[in-house]
Amino acid sequence: MIGQSPAMQEVYRVTRQVAASSATVLLTGETGTGKELAARAIHELSPRAAGPYIRVNCGALSESLLESELFGHVKGAFTSAVENRTGRFEAAHGGTIFLDEIDSVSYTLQVKLLRVLQEQEFERVGDNRTIRVDCRVVAATSRDLLDEIEAGRFRDDLYFRLNVVPVFLPPLRERPKDIPLLVDFFIRKYAEANNVSISTISEAALAALVGYSWPGNVRELQNYIERAIVFSRDGHLSLELFPAHVRGGTPVRLSRPGTRSPETLCRELVALGTVAAGDSATNLYEQIVSLVERELIDQVLKSCQGVQTKAAVRLGINRNTLHKKIEEFGLEAADERL
């Protein structure tokens, strides 16, 4: 973890202090702010450092697969359960389990998760034998869980059990003085990884990086530094090696030639019978958005060979949301256990 800003100093202070305990930690912050780095730091600074560190991306699995992944299953518990399987909580015994995207866990599964947090015990799927574990739980979310509670998607009792020690990871735009440090670190890292000699970055390029808002946070900065190093030919990172929107220009967007106006598109769709004539503007809008969304999801699924986890990442939506959209639109995707 890199940064000398007051916000990051507070993260370091809380991380060191909580690491020595066994308290449950809830990491919050936007995507790309370094929540997984903080989770690993808590583990490595703790008395459990010699034990296992187990990471689970809760947003990448459906409810049934996530339950099996977390708690394990016995042979015959369901159709594809051909042998007993140890769950992630069991594997984390004596160490730390990191539950990323905790907000994506279904309401039903949250009940079983709450029991593990409170009682340190559970049963494998399809079994009635109780298993006790001793593991430290660190959870992370990029959403406001209080909003999720109000929306009826997250249990308040689970939230209070997770939120024993909250740690907020600040967005990069709120700590611009840390950007030069991060730039220097990523330059050295990716120059070595790509076996190139990168020695300098121009003042104009660094000023542009410091002035950019970084919606993707540290992960976005990391990607742009790596790309600039790949395209650099003289060991120097100049402003031109970075994307137009980072330099203060307009983002380059993919579009087809001859873009039609919304009015023209509506007339064409009505003529084709794709949408109903005489519908209100709101209904037309909803129909067109649905058509575009279906086409987009279909194309992304095809480019990902039907693998829903990859498609969800590329679309920037939750895995469970994608699954619902696939069923809603009658699309086909690979049956995966990723």
Strand content: 5-15%
Q: What is the level 1 CATH name of the largest domain?
A: Alpha Beta
Radius of gyration equals 24 Å
Question: What fold name goes in the CATH topology slot of the largest domain?
Answer: Rossmann fold
Report the biggest beta sheet as strand number plus sense, adding barrel if it closes: 5 strands, parallel
Low-confidence stretches: none
The count of β-strands is 9
Structure explained in plain terms:
The protein is of the alpha/beta class and 338 residues long. The protein folds into 3 domains: 6-170, P-loop containing nucleotide triphosphate hydrolases (Rossmann fold); 176-241, Helicase, Ruva Protein, domain 3; 262-329, Homeodomain-like (Arc Repressor Mutant, subunit A), CATH 1.10.10.60. It is 46% helix and 10% strand. It has helices spanning 6-19, 35-44, 63-71, 88-91, 107-119, 145-150, 156-162, 179-193, 203-211, 217-231, 262-272, 281-303, 308-315, 319-329, and strands spanning 25-28, 53-57, 96-100, 121-123, 130-132, 136-141, 165-168, 200-201, 236-237. Strand 4 and strand 5 (130-132) form a beta hairpin. The chain is globular, with a radius of gyration of 24 Å. The two termini are 29 Å apart.
